[in-house]
Structures are given as C-alpha cells and as structure tokens.
Design brief:
Helix content: over 70%
Number of helices: 17
Largest sheet: none
Radius of gyration: 21 Å
Length: about 425
C-alpha cells in the first residue's frame, strides 16, 4: 500500500516537472488547479474509504456474495458521480480559475490544462475506488501493478504530448493533462481485466450490478461524511493558497512546489493508514475490535517514525530538492524555506492521516469530519488570514503544521474512547 500511494503521487510530480519548463505562470495555474483537482480526489477518497470499509466488513463476515454486490454498488455510485463532476468540471474550469485569482492571460494560455484534467475526472475516481476495493479484499498488489502501468504511460506521454516529437508539435500544457488522463485510463483497463479473471480475489458478476439498498445506503451514508471531511480540508487549502497569492506569483509557485514535495513525502503515511483501515474493517467484521485497535496503534508508531525521518530529510535537503522543480533562483530560495517549514510537522501528519483512515475503516466518517470543521475552518483559515497580514506567505504556511498537530491530538483522544467499535455497516 505504501508503494501504491507513492506511485499515485508520481502523476503530479511528473506533471510539475515538465510544466515547470513553461515558467512560473504555468506553475501558478497548476497550483490554482490543484485545489479543484483535490476536490475530485477528495470525492474519490471519500468513496474509496466508504467502499473499502463496507467491502472489508463483508470480507470479515465471510459473506462472499455480498462482497461482490457491495463492490458493484460502489462502482455504480462512482459512475454517476463521475458523469456529473466531469461535465461540471469541463464547463466551469475557467470560471473557477478566475475566482481563484488567475489573470486573463493565464486563463487564455493555460486553462486547457484545468479543463481537460477536470473533465476527465472519471479516471481519477474509478482508479481510486477500484484500488480501495482490491485493498479491502486483501489484494493490494493489483493496485501497485495498476499504478505502475498508469505511471509508465504518463511518464512516456508527458514530454511527447507537451513538447512534441518529430513533426508532431505537441499540445503544450494541455498535453500534461491528456497524458495523465490517458495513463489512468490504461490503469483502469488493467483493473477491469483482473476483475474479469476467474481466480480474482475481487469477484464481481453481472448479476451484482443491480440496486441493493443495504450496501448502497451503507456506502452512500459513509461516503457523504467522508467526502465532506476532505472537502473541508480542501477549502482550507484553497484559502491558504489565496492568502499566499497576495504575495505574488513567485510566492505561490514556491508554495506549490514545496507542497507537491511534501505530499509525496507523506505518502508512506497514507499507505500505512490504508493498511490500518483495511485491518480495522476486516477485524470489526470478524468481531475482533480489540485486535483492530491494536493494529492502529502499531501502525501509528511505524508511521510516526518513518515520517519523522522523511521530514528531517526534507528540512536538511530542502534547497537541493526544490532545484529539480524550480524555474528560477527566486522561486528556488522561497520554496526551500517553505519546504523546511512544512517539514516540521511530519509526525503530526502521520497521526492525522492514520486517525482519519482508522475512523474511516470502521465506517465512522462523522467524527473526523467534525474535527476537520473545527481545526480547518474555525482555526486555520482565520489564523492564516491574520498571520499572512503580518508576515505574508510565511504566515499562512506556518499554520499548516500547527493545525495538523491539533487535528491529530483531538482525533487520538476521540479514538481512545472507542465509540467507533460499535459502528454498524
């Protein structure tokens, strides 16, 4: 699972590497698109958490036919949401960029990236939900192979579709979006082939693609709160980016680069969190709640130690790392400081990720959602606003590790109370 999430991050890393060749203006547009794509990712993660929790519970209950039925309900729900979000994303991409502060010139030159990426959001949702289903049945190796294929395609297509080859002139920044969407599509095709095999751990038959009220409502109710939880944090990220933008395009470009690096570095924490969520769901289904809790605390120790090491590396090597992605010396120096600041909170990130995933694995997405509202909306947004007025971009950035620490502490206290053990799905 750690390998899986590392591979998932490669899409954005490869994109930002090639887009940086077009200058800080293009990077800024990618940065402004990031919150919009994050909303799609949040939808896919919320669906994935809910789908994985329900399917893992059925696995623990040894209800074989119900596993396939629940998985089919997840895919039906994913298809409906994909169509809706894809149409909205394609039609409103330029509007959102303008609202987020992009200039008219940036929208004319580079909005095609946002429109294509948002319009093709079905690939983001399906690859995420399919992977959650494979994890829930205990076959994460398929997820890794899926993302190897998808990333290999993206890595090959990005420079070709952006800058061309031979007589083909390329599509510029739009090529990055086409490459990413095409790579994910190849991954989804592989997942469908695996499901169709006779001996697949995830067996979904045609007969499963019917409306089943119990499984559908379990996924829908759990997903609603799960998606809301991620949307809440995404809106907070949008606000922080907006405050940083007041310091100029180079400040925003530096923040985007630093944040992309951090998002990659913390991915092992997400992998361990996914593992904990699967163990929680399966053990609750098998009526072993104490074993589920023990798995979470063990995973927490591993995640904290690993991310503490990786965060230290980000701090010590910040100037070297950002040079790989920066288009100018000014952006490089700014991004190095931003990365060092964000690197101070890696232990907090470990537990905030783990706790959210553990609650989600139990099917309790309400608790982390309420904590998110308090931490991100009631604390981070007003604090970032105040500090950015005094210290500019730096003031907004320092709120990230502070608030993640608060979120982790509150979730740990609530998790110890154990109410999640009685969650029904």
């Amino acid at each position: 699972m750690v390998t899986e999430v590392l591979l998932e991050s490669a899409f954005s890393v490869v994109d930002i590497f090639w887009v940086s060749k077009l200058g800080s203006g293009a990077i800024s547009v990618v940065g402004l698109t990031e919150p919009l794509v994050s909303l799609i990712l949040s939808t896919s993660m919320g669906l994935g958490i809910a789908s994985g929790a329900v399917v893992a519970r059925r696995v623990g209950e040894k209800a074989t036919d119900q596993v396939g039925l629940a998985a089919a309900q997840a895919l039906i729900l994913s298809g409906c949401l994909s169509v809706l979000l894809g149409i909205v994303g394609w039609c409103t991409a330029s509007v959102w960029l303008r609202l987020l502060g992009a200039s008219s010139l940036q929208i004319v030159l580079w909005s095609s990236y946002s429109r294509l990426l948002l319009g093709g959001c079905s690939t983001i949702i399906f690859i995420s939900v399919f992977n959650a289903l494979f994890r829930a049945v205990g076959d994460p190796a398929v997820c890794v192979r899926t993302l190897w294929l998808a990333n290999s395609a993206n890595l090959l297509l990005d420079p070709i579709l952006m800058f061309g080859i031979g007589r083909f002139k390329g599509f510029g920044i739009a090529g990055a979006a086409i490459a990413t969407t095409s790579g994910r599509s190849i991954g989804i095709l592989y997942q469908m082939i695996v499901v169709a095999r006779k001996h697949s751990k995830l067996t979904i038959r045609k007969s499963h693609f019917r409306f089943d009220s119990h499984n559908m409502m379990s996924i829908f109710k759990t997903a609603n709160a799960g998606i809301a939880q991620f949307y809440i944090s995404d809106i907070s990220w949008v606000a922080v980016a907006k405050f940083i933008q007041h310091s100029g395009a180079e400040a925003l470009a530096a923040y985007v680069i630093a944040l992309r690096i951090v998002n990659v570095t913390v991915l092992p924490g997400w992998g361990l969190g996914n593992a904990a969520a699967t163990l929680v769901g399966q053990n609750l289904g098998a009526h072993k709640p104490e074993r589920a809790e023990r798995a979470v605390w063990m995973t927490g120790k591993y995640a904290a130690l690993l991310l503490a090491f990786l965060g230290g590396a980000d701090i010590l090597l910040s100037a070297t790392i950002v040079q790989w992605f920066s288009p100018s010396d000014v952006v490089t120096s700014e991004a190095a400081v931003d990365l060092a600041i964000l690197g101070t909170g890696f232990v907090f990130y470990a537990y905030s990720i783990l706790m959210a995933e553990a609650f989600g694995g139990a099917g309790d997405t309400i608790t982390p959602t309420l904590v998110s509202i308090f931490c991100y909306w009631c604390i981070q947004i007003p604090l970032a606003w105040i500090l950015s007025d005094h210290w500019g971009a730096r003031g907004a950035i320092v709120t990230v590790p502070m608030v993640e620490g608060l979120y982790a502490a509150i979730c740990i206290v609530l998790f110890r109370r154990g109410t999640w053990k009685s969650q029904t799905l």
